[in-house]
Amino acid sequence: MGSAAAATAAVTVTTVGVLPAYLVGVLSVQLSADLGFGPSLLGVLVASFFATSAVSAFTAGALVRRVGTVAVVRLSAGLAAASLVVALLARDVAVLVGALVVAGWGNGIGQPASNDLIARAVSMPRQGLAYGLKQAAIPLATLLAGAAIPLVAIPLGWRAAFAIAAGLTVVVLLSVPSASRLGTRAASQPTEAAGPFRRAPLFVLAAGLALGAGTGNAMGSFLVVTAVDAGIAPSTAGVLAAVASAGGAAMRVVMGWLADRVRTRWLLVVAAQMALGGMAYALLGTGVEALIAAGAVLGYCTGWAWAGLSTFAITRMHHGMAAQATSITQGGMGLGAAAGPLLFGAVVAATSYATAWYGTAAFAVLAGVVIVIGRRMLMRDRPALVEAHRARRAGRTRRRRRVPAAR
């Protein structure tokens, strides 16, 4: 019960935590018509959410130590509900910005707290899947937001979509279990991957994750308007965002499931996913409807499918310090998630969607390179993990050499 309740709480709170930002992104056509703003201001709106998330994430580790993991998780859900109510009442852009700032603060403290919840309450052999499910909540939020266009926003208006989201968030808040129900199921002994808490490699990883999150979040924020600009109908663009998000969510879960069963260099897998995402973003810049659809699915399944793996790897390397370690990396992700849409919107306003997407592709490749550098810095303090990798590689080599002799 403890593991399932912890994973469920982490997933649902993460989903509603990012929902306000993605609702603004996918409902931007309706919002801009009503409140009067363009692509560059859309970038500012999304950036206000993620910039606040980044700042508050850096404080999450200390807040968790002071008031407890469950209390911070509940506070995160409560702030999301409050922000959606404010957005529902918005009559100008300033109120909408205020609502996104409140939501961003809640999301920022909720992410590391949810990571700590999984690290403490989910058994070690299932943590990869739990982190995959938790991070699948982000494309799930995009899926819900994208589905809101044809199901709610077009027939009833964007305010109805925000009202339904606010009700969902209140339900999530009330369903977060108590600390006594969650228990502490995680293994008490650190794994071979555990090592000291060093800020330098974590900040390098945070820089790589910032670049990766910036590119992925630009896709989440501007996919619909890019598709509409290329001639795709708004309702079809919303369905495309929903389908691509569902694929990305499924991929995050699958990769988390694999992480529990396969011992490998998962941060290198993260770097490879980011680089493949660069190819997807380049497809989005072509302006061709079929290629945009392919780029959307590929982008969500590669360039924006690494968040669970990165969190899994970082927490395993920092046993008992999940909130402290991921407050740094989540802060970096928040900064990137804020800067990405802001920069993208500015480039679109000055040039074109094509130029913005090709630049996004280049940043995605650079993100993978920075992750490789950060991983190398972490490995210097983990000789047991280095030796374990060597032993497993030697074992695989011996097995391959024995196979021909047996034949």
Keywords:
16 helices; Growth Hormone, Chain: A; 407 residues; mainly alpha
Structure, described:
It is a single chain. With 407 residues, this protein is an all-alpha fold. The chain has one domain: Growth Hormone, Chain: A (Up-down Bundle), CATH 1.20.1250. The chain is 85% helix and 0% strand. The chain is built from 16 helices and no strands. The chain has helices at residues 2-26, 28-35, 39-67, 69-88, 93-121, 127-156, 158-175, 179-182, 199-229, 234-259, 266-284, 289-303, 307-316, 322-350, 353-379, 383-406. α9 runs parallel beside α11 and α9 (199-229) runs parallel beside α14 (322-350). The longest helix has 31 residues, at 199-229. It is globular.
Quick recap of the structure?
The chain has 407 residues and is an all-alpha fold. It has a single domain (2-179, 191-406), classed as MFS general substrate transporter like domains (Growth Hormone, Chain: A, Up-down Bundle), CATH 1.20.1250.20.
Given this structure, which CATH class is correct?
Answer: Mainly Alpha
Q: Report the oligomer.
A: single chain
CATH topology annotation:
Growth Hormone, Chain: A
In helices, the fraction of residues equals over 70%
The best one-word shape is globular
Total discrete domains: 1
Mean pLDDT over the residues: 84
Q: In the CATH classification, which architecture applies? A: Up-down Bundle
| Element order: H for helix, E for strand | HHHHHHHHHHHHHHHH
The largest sheet, given as strand count, sense and whether it forms a barrel, is: none
Distance between the termini: 49 Å
Which superfamily, in CATH terms, is the homologous superfamily?
A: MFS general substrate transporter like domains
Number of strands: 0
Instruction: Report the total helices.
Output: 16
Given helix and strand content, the structural type is mainly alpha
Low-pLDDT stretches: none
Strand content: under 5%
**Any idea what the radius of gyration is?**
21 Å
